[in-house]
Amino acid sequence: MTEHHDPLRSLFQQAADYGQARADAAPAAHITERGRRSHRRRVAVAAAATCLVLAGGGAAAAVLLPQSPAPVVPATSPSPSTPAPPTPRPPASGMPTPDRTATSLPTGATATHLPGTPTQPPARGATTSPP
28, 63, 71, 109: which could form a disulfide with 105 (CB 3.0–4.6 Å)? Predict the structure, then answer.
């Protein structure tokens, strides 16, 4: 077979020769920087995906778990408590009753008379009513 001269083939050959003469390998620093950039992107995407998975799991757990635990029943019935001591009742009228310790004086002692108070202290166990 004979090869015949094809004009298109010769043009492609010239373009290939020209491109091969001008082609240079990229500097190593440029290739290294592209690799580092790609690695940083992959790590950032993995960290973001991990955060989303953890947040989604926490939200799902918060929704699915019961909000408050059921009340715990005591193992035994509570013991009866002792009744509280009775509180003293206030006087029936607006007049204060004299305090027994303040009005009881030793034998032979004299007390000054105050308006609205009896001159003699009441006997023990006796009740007084205001005039």
Answer: 109
Cα 19–Cα 20–Cα 24 angle in degrees, nearest 5: 95
What lies within 8 Å, CB to CB, of 117 at 6+ separation is 98, 103
Alpha-helical regions (H) of the chain = 7-22, 28-64, 100-103
* Whole-number Å distance between alpha carbons of 111 and 7: 146
What count of other Cβ atoms lies within 10 Å of the Cβ of residue 49? 10
Q: What is the pTM of this model?
A: 0.37
Give SS3 for 122.
coil
Residue 122: exposed, middle, or buried by beta-carbon count in 10 A (0-12, 13-18, 19+)? middle
Position 55: which residue type? Answer: A
Give pLDDT tens digits for 77-109. Answer: 766 677 767 777 766 665 655 555 555 555 655
Assigned token pair, 68: 């408050």
Sign of the dihedral through C-alpha 72, 73, 75, 79: positive
